[in-house]
Amino acid sequence: MATTTNDSLTFKNGYSEVNGLKMYFEIYGQGKPLVLIHGGGSTIQSNFEKVIPLFAKNRKVIAVELQAHGRTNDRNADLTFEQDADDVATLLKNLKIDKADFFGFSNGGTTTLQIAIRHPELVDKIILGSALAKRNGVPEWFWGFMSQAKLENMPEQLKEGYKKVAADTNGLQVMHDRDAKRMVNFKDIPDEQIKSIKAPTLIIIGDKDVITPEHAIELHRQIKNSDLAIIPGGHGQYIGEITTITPDTKESEFVVPMIEKFLNKSKE
Fold this sequence. Notes:
Blueprint: E1 2-6, E2 9-18, E3 21-28, E4 33-37, H1 44-48, H2 52-55, E5 60-64, H3 81-94, E6 100-105, H4 107-118, E7 123-129, H5 141-147, H6 156-165, H7 171-184, H8 191-195, E8 201-206, H9 213-222, E9 226-231, H10 256-264
Parallel strand pairs: 4-5, 4-6, 6-7, 7-8, 8-9
Antiparallel strand pairs: 1-2, 2-3, 3-5
Helix pairs in contact: 3-4
């Protein structure tokens, strides 16, 4: 593990052997572990760069890059949310972390659901940012769009984010194709699995998100110990996700204080 300083923020970073991957991770700050899990087509920085310094004031932040994303290599296998969940669990075991809180955004939120379902012993609390659990959780056009997905239609900021960090920029096509295929083949997470989640859960979406308010409310009803927040704005705007940033984006618009309040609340 190396120690790096970047914009006055010091962090450790490295790679871990995880189920046939060399999985990249970064660790910031001290305190109770909070694991950040990025969305499709993204890197640690393209999703979380704006909020990591805020979380790291009070927490040990562990940010990961999943198969074929950012600095983590690809394995010769399709992406699944279940495998991503198992990869994160293995990484934490390698880092000797027995229990953590998890914040997953977008596809990372779906991975976080799978971590809570498959590895409940690792989980203290979870935050689901714009997470999808059912095909009807997004508008119908989304599925047509995914089945026609082309690399040239991927947001430029995400392509740039990938090229900035990946060892081999040819992996961009692989990442895109694996993410698109996973979404086209997406299957509903069964109700009984969602209802089995015991971890205190905070569900967050934007009111102009690709995830529908109805879906967030359904998740809220199914996860017994959950809170729900619908925040003005688009997909990931509430954390300053790279495609949502404008010149007048302010730190005060991010939901970090709300998340910290949720994490610090004693379990009921």
